[in-house]
Amino acid sequence: MKKLIAFVTIPALVLGIGSALAFKEFSNPSSDSNALAKTFNSTEEIAKDANVIIKANVPSEFKQETVGSLVYNVYEVQVDKLYSNLTDEDITEGESIEVHRLIGFNVSEGKEMANIGDSAFHELKEGEYLLFLNGGYDEDLKKFTYIPNTPNQLFKMASSKGFWSNKSSNSSEFENITDENALPSINETDLLEAIESMK
Question: 44: Cβ–Cβ under 8 A, 6 or more apart, which residues?
Fold first, then answer.
């Protein structure tokens, strides 16, 4: 029940923060508003805020779902590696789960959607991502759903490893592909240490 309350609270909090900036956003709906969503400054911080952490293969195809006024792009992602699962739902490596990526909310009939996060990253490019999710049973959708803990930061597997990297060659590097500079990348070794420190 505690997890369900936290899951429901996240979209409500995003909308609450967004209402303070509503006039600016609604008068210019095409503008981006990264201020509507939180940004993390460390691996420990982003890991602590997620109840599911996975490495997943994300396709370019998605469907769009609206729940109340919230708009999501929904991806069927394949779980390549499960780092952490604090939910009651079983997640198995090799299987797929639906990830609901919050992209905006509908102000009212006839108005354009107000963006949450950078609209350039609403549609994800195919690839392997490190996803920090919060999951819970959604009463409106009648299913278990997973939502990234922020739309501001996306971590995609780096295309190549630097020759002078001081990390283990067996450790994956995930680059923040958005314009956020707070946390430019996450190394798998650092992630595992952060998860271990939370136990």
Answer: 194, 197, 198
Quote the tokens at residue 185: 């990348």
pTM of the model: 0.77
| H-assigned helices in the chain | 2-20, 22-27, 43-48, 188-197
Taking only the tens place, the pLDDT of each residue in 63-102 is 999 888 899 999 999 999 999 999 999 999 999 999 999 9
Tokens in use for 144? 């278990």
* Class of 2-197 in CATH: mainly beta
Q: How far apart are CA 54 and CA 57, in angstroms?
A: 10
Q: Is residue 109 packed enough to be buried (19+ CB in 10 Å), middle (13-18) or exposed (0-12)?
A: exposed
Say which residue the tokens 């739902």 belong to.
89
CB atoms inside a 10 Å sphere around CB 42? 13
Amino acid identity of residue 25, one-letter, is E
Domains of the chain, by residue range, sit at: 2-197
Q: Which of 93, 65, 90, 64 is nearest to 77 (CA)?
A: 93
Closest CA to 114 of 101, 99, 100, 103: 103
3-state secondary structure of 73: strand
Alpha-carbon separation of residue 87 from 52, 69, 78, 137 (angstroms): 7, 26, 18, 10
